[in-house]
User: Which sequence fits this backbone?
């Protein structure tokens, strides 16, 4: 059964149900979408495959077995205000009663409250930031970090390069990528996670969202919105860590670093790249952001000749980078 971020409305009064659905779907502050069913058979068929966040059922049909095979939050639309307080006695302690014939705003207030309570609070998503002037070393370090962390817990990898060139390693699924994910986020606010699931690709060790194909999509991203996007994805979809390969393409990208629990930086032997890294750290110090420099962990990533092509994952297993990064992440000799 697939969980989804929906409020399912079941009412034989088609006009009322459609009006309530339209109000919910037009309000971007509500953290889910709505879908209507007016026939029992259709609803049962839907609930066999999907577990919505909220199941809102009219009292006159709630007595039927609509809740026998699902775990959604049950909201009963009561015809009589006096029946609201009796809802839990009739339908269980988890049921919520709402008077049906009141203003939509009051019904929505109750729906929003229940919907946000449905967001799991025990998922503490941590952002892991990888930065550095050496793009190749940064890419290798970020992928290796996500690969290793993915052995321990659910991990999502996101590359924020303008020109990533990683199509062979992280191919898009259904031609969807990070550009689509951010577009849905900007359009739908909180109600984007169902669409986001379609952009997430799965591998044995980690999940990822395919990188952008259009550089402007990165340059238009606001750093604070990127953080909001990532943390909500982590919480909604159950990722303990999200590894971010952070380029300077994102405006004021250091604001992303502020929200990162850990920051890893690949060291380079190239004098020019060393100076660029030093200049960035000096900027942080002079701007009162020295705490970010303190969080940075430098890792020596010598060029071992790993090719960013279809053979990458086979090479990864035997790369010296695995042992180097593993010691930093998990300790050990």
Assistant:
């Amino acid at each position: 059964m697939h969980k989804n971020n929906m409020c399912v409305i079941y009412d034989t009064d088609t006009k009322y149900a459609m009006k309530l659905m339209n109000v919910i779907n037009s309000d971007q502050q509500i953290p889910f979408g709505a879908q209507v069913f007016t026939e029992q058979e259709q609803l049962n068929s839907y609930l066999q495959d999907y577990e919505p966040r909220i199941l809102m059922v009219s009292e006159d049909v709630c007595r039927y077995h609509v809740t026998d095979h699902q775990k959604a939050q049950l909201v009963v639309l009561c015809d009589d205000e006096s029946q609201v307080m009796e809802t839990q006695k009739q339908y269980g302690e988890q049921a919520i009663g709402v008077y049906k014939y009141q203003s939509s705003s009051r019904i929505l207030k109750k729906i929003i409250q229940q919907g946000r309570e449905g967001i799991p609070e025990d998922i503490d998503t941590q952002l892991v930031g990888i930065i550095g002037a050496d793009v190749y070393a940064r890419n290798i370090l970020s992928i290796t970090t996500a690969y290793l962390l993915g052995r321990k817990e659910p991990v999502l990898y996101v590359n924020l390069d303008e020109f990533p060139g990683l199509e062979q390693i992280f191919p898009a699924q259904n031609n969807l990528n990070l550009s689509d994910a951010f577009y849905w986020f900007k359009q739908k606010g909180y109600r984007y996670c169902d669409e986001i699931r379609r952009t997430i690709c799965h591998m044995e060790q980690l999940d990822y969202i395919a990188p952008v194909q259009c550089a402007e999509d990165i340059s238009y991203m606001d750093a604070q919105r990127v953080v909001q996007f990532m943390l909500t994805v982590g919480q909604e979809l159950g990722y303990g860590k999200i590894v971010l390969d952070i380029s300077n393409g994102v405006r004021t990208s250091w604001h992303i670093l502020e929200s990162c629990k850990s920051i890893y930086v690949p060291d380079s032997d190239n004098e020019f790249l060393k100076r660029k890294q030093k200049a960035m750290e000096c900027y942080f110090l002079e701007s009162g952001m020295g705490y970010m420099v303190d969080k940075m962990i430098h890792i020596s990533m010598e060029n071992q000749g790993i090719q960013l092509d279809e053979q990458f994952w086979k090479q990864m297993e035997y790369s010296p980078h695995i042992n180097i990064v593993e010691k930093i992440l998990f300790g050990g000799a």
